[in-house]
Amino acid sequence: MSHFGEVSYVELPAVFHLSGRFAADTDPNKVNLTIGAYRTEAGKPWVLPCVRQAESILASDETINKEYLSMSGLQSLCDAAMRLVLGESSPVIQEDRAVALQTLSGTGALYICFQFIDQFYGGCKDIYVSDPSWGNHKLMIDRIPGLNFKQYPYYNSETMTVDVDAMCRTLDGAAEGSVVLLHACAHNPTGIDPSRNDWEKIAAVCRKKNLLVIFDLAYLGYASGDYNEDAWSIRYFADLGMEFFVCQSFAKIMGLYSERVGALHFVGATSEIAHKCLSQMKIIVRSIYSNPPSHGARIASLCLNNRDLRIEWEDCLKEMHARIRRARTYLHTALKMANVPGNWDHILSQNGMFSYTGLTKAQCEVLIEKHHIYLLKSGRISMCGVTESNAKYVAESFKDAIETAKEN
Hints:
The chain is an alpha/beta fold. 47% of the residues lie in helices and 14% in strands. The protein contains 17 helices and 13 strands. Strands 2-10-9-8-7-3-4 form a 7-stranded mixed β-sheet, sandwiched between helices. Strands 1-12 form a two-stranded parallel ribbon. A two-stranded antiparallel ribbon has the order 5-6. The termini are far apart.
């Protein structure tokens, strides 16, 4: 007799289930618009040249060993990551009010952040997340009993824009000192970001209600091709003197998906408060995985700190952004050429890795089952799956799915 006989089976998250189906599909026209990972024009993963060079440097450096890192990880990475996010001449860095520790990618940063808030935050533990948002936000928050998952309106399906007024009204109605999670740039899944004027309105509400802010930063540089531009919202909040967290990932921006490299940053009201909080976050790390792995961290650190590799990485980031912009143009042009019903200009106006197409669940099911085009049933697609060679097929399949679903 098992001690675990009452455990029920749980389905995999849709993104992994669909990716598995895609891998097993033998149809020659199949297209994967599901998973959030960069692909080249040939539809292949890309190991960045600067990453290859960094690995070669590390492999030939006999001074590097396999000893444990500290609980906070590789300091050279933490320092460089902080400057990348907050700016080379950031006042909060100069005032020693910013601290950072290496994490298991952005997911690990979020989890450590949520655990810290659960254990040490004295304010309201309602955590407001955009509707819609990355599915893992809710999954993590719901598994920490002391936290309460809440949502604020974000996407206006009629205008296909950010509904900043509705968002601010909801946050203004939140309990004093609640927590709000904001996507710093390249919003997942909509691909729509607030303007600078919008960010000023959001910040005003956060200050008025004394909200604790968490920035999710997985796509720095993907929105505009310029990491300084994409970090504007974070730096604006820093200039206002607010306390906040930043959960940063190097998966997308360096192609280090399987290396699990990230950082958790905290900007405190004073240096003393920031370092006290860092000490407690280290203990949380100790209780979960003790210390982070070094290999990916050393790669990322070299790419940020080595002058030549830094230049090459910045060029790679611009190319990834440009490739996705080209994919948007391919698809938009093909949709117009195929006379697909509706206005598809939002494909061009959205940014980052994803596009919220506006397709219905029924239309998505037709695409998956009939045309072997795999996408989330919310209508979100990864633009990296679109290439010049498959855009026409994708557009024609969209047209058929819209017409078929309407008939049914």
